[in-house]
Amino acid sequence: MSIKAHIALLLGLLLAGLTSAQDAHFTQFYAAPTYLNPAFAGSTAQSRVAMNYRHQWPSIPGAFVTHNVAFDQFFSGINSGIGVMVTHDRAGSGAMTHTNIGLQYAYEVQLNRKWSFRPAIHASVSQRSLDFNRLTFGDQLLRNNAGSTIDPDIIQFSGQNAFYPDFGSGMLLYSEKLWFGVSAHHLNRPNESLLQQESRVPIRYSVHGGWRMRVNERNYNSPKQHIVTAFHYRSQGDYDQLDVGVYYEYEPITFGVWYRGLPGVKQTTNYVNHDALALMLGVEVKNIYIGYSYDITISNLAVNTGGSHEVSLVSQFASRRKKKKTRQRLIPCAKF
Question: Phi/psi at 132 (nearest 5 deg)?
């Protein structure tokens, strides 16, 4: 294998390692509630289907594209919520892919008249793979990217993938106006190495919460208006991030503005972390919530990334009997 091929292969593997260092994330994380925290499974009395699509940095070759589909339901007979979720993430011109299929279980405890508590667990299986046929190697560059690599040693890396179980947990504490949750994913630190070596997935921690206030509380004849403030801090390996935002809800429309970063805090790379400003617009149509958000990159990558686009679709449906119960158990977090 030539020196340049070695370098290209090393860079490809390094890219794979970097992309696995952090999980995919959503700007509209409350539109993907069970991805954020398994304690949100069955958090409404209605059945819920959530679909999410994120295209991050479309102007950069090999942008990150993430799909998430989830279903969750509350079972009053056992005071529990159960959910199922499928997540697929693609990066590096499709060379690196990750698919996860998981189940969530949450149990609801009524602490008193105002507060409820939901502990939860998450169990899943994941597959991570890297398609070396989509990578460009040194000999291809020397031949002006003509055809595929002709180095026979590359064959040993073809078809490699990692398949592993993955576990997490979470909890949620909420009242009529406040909520606070924590979650931890990859508790078993699974090995995701593609070369039969050792590459442990770092634990992803999440702390999130917020407060909901009704603006026109005394005027019940007019459309409901709420201001919702929220935060989300997440940490995984050497990386951490804080989202702080505010929503204005004028039913059926929701507007949101978020800042993502850790101002004044430097990472291990000695770099001040200002990531993005996110603008969000959502609408509710007959228990169907449609959201769109755009991340405006404010880091040094701003000129070249093209921002990030995200679309969410959440549908809730239930019998008339369950709809009445929904009013009695409504977690006040944002809808997007």
Answer: -70, -15
